[in-house]
Amino acid sequence: MGFLTLEGLTRLYGDVAAVSDVSLSVAKGEFVSLLGPSGCGKTTTLQMIAGLVEPTSGRITLDGRDITHEKPDRRGLGIVFQSYALFPHMTVAQNVSFGLEMRRVARAEREARVRQALALVQLAALADRYPRQLSGGQRQRVAVARALVIDPPVLLLDEPLSNLDAKLREEMQFELRGIQQRVGTTTIMVTHDQGEALSMSDRVVVMEQGHIVQVDAPYRLYESPATSFISAFVGKMNRLSGVWRPGGVEIGGRLLPCNGAGLSEGAAAVLAIRPEKIGLKAPGAGVLDGRVKGRFFLGSAWFFTVETPAGLIGVSLPNAGEEPAREGDAVGLDWSSTSAKAAKPEGAQGA
Amino acid sequence: MSGARVSTTPWLLAAPGALLFAALVLVPLALTVVLSFHAYDVARGVQDEFTLAHYAAILSDSYFLNIFWRTLRLAALTTLICAVIGAPEAYVLSRMREPWRSIFLLAIIGPLLVSVVVRTFGWSMLLGPTGLVNDTFRGLGIGTVKILYTETAIVIALVHVMLPFMVIPVWTSLQKLDPMVEAAAWTLGASRFTALRRVVLPQVTMGLLSGSLVVFGLSASAFAIPALLGGRRLKMAATLVYDEYMHELNWPLGAAIAMLVLVINLVIMLAYQRVVEARAKRTLG
Ligand SMILES: Nc1ncnc2c1ncn2[C@@H]1O[C@H](COP(=O)(O)OP(=O)(O)OP(=O)(O)O)[C@@H](O)[C@H]1O
Ligand SMILES: [Mg+2]
After folding, report:
1. Cα–Cα distance between A348 and B186 in angstroms, integer?
2. Domains in chain B, ordered, with CATH?
3. What is the Cα–Cα distance from B26 to B33, expressed in whole angstroms?
4. By CB neighbour count within 10 A (0-12 exposed, 13-18 middle, 19+ buried), where does B33 fall?
5. Is the dihedral of CA B137, B140, B144, B145 positive or negative?
6. What pLDDT sits at residue A348?
7. Cα(B70)–Cα(B237) distance, rounded to whole angstroms?
8. Contact list, B97 vs chain A (CB under 8 Å)
9. How confident is the model at residue B1, as a pLDDT?
10. Which residues of A touch B191 (CB under 8 A)?
11. Order of strands across the sheet with A57-62?
């Protein structure tokens, strides 16, 4: 039995299900991310937990208590809204202090805690500004401070870092993760940044069109995505269609090595391999030859698109400090059979 | 593009409106001011002499002062009642779902489409000794209550007429408020009432204050309602002016009363505006 559990949670808008049959059990102190494309129901799920959207059906329990129909002010959860929802007529400090006032915290303690929370989000200098005088990222951090300051048992974060620059975002990720580990706050974070979800969470929940499609630890999610949708959404994935032969998938008369449990010889198959699992070699030295079509420098890595008889393949190489193959160069692509997986094509799965 | 041309364009664009305003408001106003200083003789009518006698007469006569005082009192009371009814009404309206919202909004604005005179006659039928209201009172055993030709009748009808002018600005300012802001207050532990008081109300103050300004101004200068529901004896400023012009035929005195009412109204509204603006500066920057 989890600390926070959702059972068959469903929310209809008219005939359309924004969230349908979502069940999830979150342990105390766990950090869970909700990941999914825009409009898949992440915010709706979070707001049902917060008590701001009434579930059409289903149950929510917190620490063994049924809170499905409890008023939001009784749940005591800390929430960062996607739209921040700061109080426009209150200063930054007043915004952060509001939750403490509602809890009747004494003035001196309140001020100390507000200062502490603002320092945490690096906004101590702006305590007397009004929200309209802040940048988007600063507002977002006020929202985070306002949710953190009340020491909630559960933190619900709706894209809490989406508006921050890369460096600040990393720092805030570190802080949020630190708080969760230090204080043991159970945290549910909505994001559509897969990197953020993978790096911060104990478990990642992937949603698609209102459904949960996979719940797994970040590593397992990345290595064994349940569907092609997830493999494309979490990281990049090359998908090559061919025919299964023992030892690999045959495409254009060439056998590409990969694992393929449960496939019968001659059946249609799709080979899936991550770009970073492919190495570049001299032509003829790999399992497949091709020509570099595009080359992108990403700082820590190079990303190539390589034109091959099997189709366009993305390859990612760590930046080793010297310039690798250029556009137009002939190259060989190499990978081990354990790093690629073959499966039946998606559409044929039901048949 | 010459600088001169650029700077004359706004003037040219504003000219038609300015001319219309001058012709229809400023000129009659100026004529009224001039008229109010003319002497008046019962036998010979308006004279060409300059005098301050009318102003002196008004300001020293408790009959006039009473009417001024009643005008301000009833206008203020109407404003207060409109605020107390209108603000919650606007809030409920803003939280309604379609199509109910449109239907109720229409119900609130709809009466503006009916002439005030017609609506006032409606009220006088309802509130009269044999009207529906008194029928009900008698049915409940309360007996007949005199409502028509009292200040109560005037205030009831004024509130009815003025309510849209309060609801609409408040509703507009509520529209600008992200509903999630109120929700944020709940999640931080505020009860519905506390969230309304601490979060929603400060956001609609501007709407409330500007609505009040309009309602007060219109109520203080209302004519048809006090004329029809106040009867011959219960006068307000506008009916008093009408009387001086049409019954006493003392136009200069009527003009002087009109000017005084205008000045009093203007002073009150400007002072109020000051307060509103100071507050806006503080809360909205
Ligand atoms: N009040 C509403 N009325 C009707 N439909 C709604 C309402 N709120 C949300 N929806 C619909 O429900 C679906 C899920 O919305 P939700 O806000 O949960 O998406 P999301 O996953 O948070 O997306 P994003 O990443 O863009 O924030 C969307 O298709 C949206 O259009
Ligand atoms: Mg969302």
Report:
1. 49
2. 61-284 (1.10.3720.10)
3. 10
4. middle
5. negative
6. 52
7. 9
8. none
9. 47
10. 73
11. A16-26, A4-13, A57-62, A65-66
Instruction: Give the dihedral sign, CA A115/A117/A119/A125.
Output: negative
Q: Which ligand is nearest to the CA of A39?
A: 1
User: Which of A52, A62, A90, A132 best probes binding to B when mutated, by most B CB atoms within 10 angstroms?
Assistant: A52
List the domains of chain A with CATH numbers.
4-232 (3.40.50.300), 236-343 (2.40.50.140)
Is there a contact between B74 and B155 (Cβ–Cβ < 8 Å)? yes
Residues of B in contact with A75 (CB under 8 A): 187
Q: Which positions ≥6 away from A203 have C-beta within 8 Å?
A: A30, A31, A32, A33, A215, A216, A217, A218
Which residue type occupies B206? M
Average pLDDT over residues A184-197: 90
Parallel, antiparallel, or unpaired: how do β-strands A268-273 and A238-245 relate? antiparallel
Name residue, tokens 């006088």.
B124
The DSSP 8-state label assigned to residue A259 in this structure reads: B
pLDDT at residue B283 greater than cutoff 70: no
pLDDT of A351 higher than 60? no
Ligand that comes closest to the CA of residue A207: 1
Q: What is the pLDDT of residue A347?
A: 63
Q: What is the pLDDT of residues B80-128, one digit of tens each?
A: 999 999 999 999 998 888 888 889 888 888 888 888 899 999 999 999 8
Q: Which residues are within 8 A (CB) of A349 and not within 5 positions of it... i.e. 6 or more apart?
A: none
Segments in chain A forming alpha helices (H): 42-50, 72-75, 92-102, 107-120, 136-148, 166-183, 194-200, 218-223, 228-233
A130 at B interface, C-beta within 8 A: yes
Q: Please name which of A294, A295, A279 lies closest in space to residue A333, comparing C-alpha atoms.
A: A279
Tokens of A128: 């007397």
Q: Roughly what angle, to the nearest 10 degrees, separates helices B53-60 and B62-95? A: 70
φ, ψ at B246 (rounded to 5°): -90, -35
Backbone angles phi, psi at A15, to 5 degrees: -95, -10
Distance CA B236, CA B243 (A): 11
Contact B166, B87 (CB under 8 A): yes
- Let me know the angle formed at the C-alpha of A133 by A131 and A134, rounded to the nearest 5 degrees: 70
User: What's the CA-to-centroid distance between A121 and ligand 1, angstroms?
Assistant: 28
CA distances from B148 to B67, B131, B182, B225, B228 (A): 18, 10, 43, 11, 9
Q: Is the pLDDT of residue A81 over 80?
A: yes
Per-residue pLDDT tens for A56-79? Answer: 999 999 999 999 999 999 999 999
- pLDDT tens per residue across span A23-39: 999 999 999 999 999 99
Q: What is the pLDDT of residue A349?
A: 46
State the CB neighbour count (10 A cutoff) for residue A75.
22
